[in-house]
Specification:
Largest sheet: 5 strands, mixed
CATH architecture of the largest domain: Sandwich
CATH class of the largest domain: Mainly Beta
Helix content: 10-25%
Number of domains: 2
Number of strands: 8
Number of helices: 1
Strand content: 35-45%
CATH topology of the largest domain: Immunoglobulin-like
Shape: elongated
Distance between the termini: 91 Å
Strand order of the largest sheet: 2-8-7-4-5
Oligomer: single chain
Length: 159
């Protein structure tokens, strides 16, 4: 009888403990540790396609009179205030990469999002000046997520 009472107390204690752990988990969302930010599906194109955000396919060659070159990608495990930097490089006559232009924006600048959204589709573009064509050379756009070890790049050429 005494062993039965001890067993009942232990079972009641363990059941109560599991119940409390379950309540705590539900109240905090049982979230995993934050995942590292990533960049995927980085593409360049003449104009963005799907919902005017993502390039439908990657273009490797542009004409020198192309008005603007778009770059798009999917950015995971970031929040809506995370800065994304897009940097355009061109090769000079000595085949050195030269920084031509940089633009930085965040998902919050492109719309309103719920706090729990961690995946954003974003784009940026680089325009040629109205009276000067793109130089015929190789180009590269580097993309970096601020404060993270996440970066990627894509290369193309103007003929």
């Amino acid at each position: 009888m005494k062993n039965t009472q001890i067993l009942i107390r232990k079972t009641t204690f363990l059941t109560t403990l599991l119940f409390i752990v379950g309540i705590v988990c539900l109240s905090t969302g049982c979230k995993d540790d934050p995942k590292d930010p990533t960049i995927s599906e980085l593409k360049v194109c003449i104009e963005s396609g799907i919902d005017n955000v993502l390039c439908q396919s990657n273009t490797s060659t542009f004409d020198e009179d192309t008005p603007a070159i778009y770059i798009s990608g999917i950015f995971d495990n970031i929040d809506q205030n995370t800065n994304i930097t897009f940097t355009l490089f061109g090769k000079d006559s000595n085949a050195n990469w030269i920084n031509l232009s940089t633009t930085t924006n965040s998902p919050s600048e492109t719309g309103t999002f719920e706090d729990d959204v961690v995946r954003f589709r974003m784009n940026a573009f680089f325009k040629k000046s109205e009276d000067v064509q793109w130089a015929k050379t190789d180009y590269r756009i580097d993309v970096e997520i601020a404060g993270a070890q996440a970066d990627d790049s894509v290369e193309f050429e103007v003929e």
